[in-house]
Inverse folding.
């Protein structure tokens, strides 16, 4: 059997909470989910597996159709995100119009939240629920045996017109048994990141799940318990990436530093092998200390992404972050002292937030001195505390995400938290945030001095121009109550 795995395009992506001109210059990262699927199928089955990243190849619908025809697969697996579900449906239709006998399999966050609504799409044959590696292996090995399909936990499919759900498979506890993502079947040298100092970049997971309860995140409701790979297994993959010519790894764990002892073990193993590849991580401000940062820096860690989210104690509590301003200031001070780059994530437009709160957050962002900030307007996602709170309080008028899942249309606009702002004002404030942080002369001079290569200059110049293009003078666009 030939299996084609597709990372869908974003032609009809729901409007992001990040200004589009910035979104365009962020780069394209490898789709880890389907690369793990590809690696698992290649190791544990005899099926032929191909991968098609439409985002990397900037493929049009016509080019996608030609690629599907050229591949002529027996089954196609597609990653389904709510933001890209319209494009996913379009690809499903292309597949079935070409050959109705090709089996269409969807996985990803969208189908786990809205399985019934997704199965209303007539072109979809199977949903793979939860973590998909073992489920999809069992599915493709028995895809034409209806009786055996009923015995595979983790599937949704139709039998005689009726939707069948076989439950959700238990989470894999030993992540070391998973083969590494099948980067070798991709054009992996073309992936990039605006933040990276190296031209060839990849992504990596060293753990799955998150134990924290942030109100804007779906993790608490989707039941993803924290599990981690061993240090030796992690460094094995780092070493493989280095041998492939990759210069930098973006580690996408929700929080790499949850288990301090494991972080130390990873660093010690890295040093023992004499590796040179750089890596960056995501961490909470209350999970780092001087000793750990020194060791991470020595072991190739060049950048830490911290989820700060807000600059006031009030909003940090609303978001259930479990941190405070003092912790944030300490973490950034220590990180900067050790010479590790820092990126601070912020959101504006949270429940109960006011203009004064947002002004304070902008000031706080400058005060803690991260190397970069990434600010968005808070978007209440499905399966989050904030979304449920909004429905209950009527700030969010209807269950619009479910309505969209039932009837995806290109003109859909997700509801923001507009208790104290209208949507236009929120995005004006977001533009102001970017201008206040990035267009300071001192910041620009510092960034120019830090550039290490022409490629890095080109990437960051494009990103900088995108910020300038947001609006030449955002102050004129903002209501009087926002003006300073």
């Amino acid at each position: 059997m030939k299996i084609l795995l597709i990372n869908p395009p974003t032609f009809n992506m729901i409007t992001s909470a990040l200004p589009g001109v910035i979104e365009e210059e962020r780069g394209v990262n490898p789709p880890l989910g389907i690369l793990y699927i590809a690696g698992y199928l290649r190791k544990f089955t005899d099926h032929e597996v191909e991968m098609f990243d439409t985002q990397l190849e900037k493929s049009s619908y016509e080019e996608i159709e030609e690629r599907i025809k050229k591949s002529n697969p027996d089954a196609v697996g597609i990653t389904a995100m709510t933001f890209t579900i319209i494009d996913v449906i379009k690809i499903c239709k292309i597949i079935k119009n070409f050959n109705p006998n090709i089996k269409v399999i969807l996985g990803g966050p969208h189908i786990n939240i809205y399985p019934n609504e997704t199965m209303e799409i007539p072109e979809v044959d199977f949903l793979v629920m939860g973590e998909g590696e073992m489920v999809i292996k069992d599915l493709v090995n028995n895809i034409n045996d209806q009786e055996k399909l009923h015995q595979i936990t983790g599937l949704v499919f139709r039998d005689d017109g009726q939707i069948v759900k076989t439950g959700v498979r238990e989470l894999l506890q030993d992540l070391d048994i998973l083969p590494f993502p099948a980067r070798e079947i991709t054009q992996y040298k073309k992936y990039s990141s605006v933040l990276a100092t190296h031209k060839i970049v990849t992504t990596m997971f060293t753990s799955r799940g998150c134990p924290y309860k942030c109100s804007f995140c779906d993790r608490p409701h989707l039941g993803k318990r924290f599990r981690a790979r061993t240090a030796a297994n992690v460094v094995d993959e780092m070493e493989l990436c280095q041998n492939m010519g990759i210069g930098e790894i973006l580690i996408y764990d929700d929080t790499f530093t949850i288990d301090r002892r494991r972080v130390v073990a990873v660093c010690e193993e890295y040093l023992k092998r004499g590796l040179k590849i750089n890596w960056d991580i995501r961490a909470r401000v209350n999970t780092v200390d001087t000793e750990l940062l020194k060791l991470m820096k020595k072991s190739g860690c060049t950048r830490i992404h911290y989820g700060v989210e807000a600059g006031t104690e009030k909003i940090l509590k609303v978001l259930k972050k479990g941190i405070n301003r003092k912790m944030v200031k300490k973490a950034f001070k220590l990180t900067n002292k050790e010479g590790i780059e820092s990126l601070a994530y912020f959101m504006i437009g949270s429940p109960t937030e006011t203009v004064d709160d947002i002004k304070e957050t902008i000031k706080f962002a400058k005060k803690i001195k991260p190397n970069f900030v990434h600010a968005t307007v808070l978007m209440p996602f499905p399966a989050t505390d904030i979304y449920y709170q909004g429905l209950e309080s009527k700030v969010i008028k209807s269950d619009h995400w479910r309505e969209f899942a039932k009837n995806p249309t290109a003109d859909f606009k997700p509801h923001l938290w507009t208790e104290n702002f209208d949507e236009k004002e929120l995005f004006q404030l977001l533009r102001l945030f970017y201008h206040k942080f990035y267009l300071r002369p001192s910041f620009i001079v510092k960034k120019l001095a830090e550039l290490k290569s022409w490629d890095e200059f080109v990437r960051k110049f494009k990103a900088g121009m995108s910020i300038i293009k947001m609006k030449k003078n955002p102050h004129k666009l903002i209501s009087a109550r926002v003006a300073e």
